[in-house]
Amino acid sequence: MANRNEGEGNRTATRAYDRHARDFVATGQVAEKAREAAEAIDGPERRDLERAEARGKAHAREEDRLLRPSASKDAGEH
């Protein structure tokens, strides 16, 4: 079933993500991890995190035309 094409909105992946998110919340570590993330953003890791974010957005921009700056012009075209 893992190789089955489910089209747009992969339900199997969604269920797996939801299950993992619930499991993580159940560990009670959400506040701790949020604090660690805030400290990383405010600390020496900031530049590395910003570069990683920019790389991720660049990949997304290549894959999703709606993330391009000209998307507002293209939005009406289907």
TrEMBL record:
Biased composition annotated in UniProt, kind: Basic and acidic residues: 32-67
Domain of life: Bacteria
UniProt-annotated stretches for the region Disordered: 1-78
Protein name from the UniProt record: Uncharacterized protein
Organism: Nitrospirillum amazonense
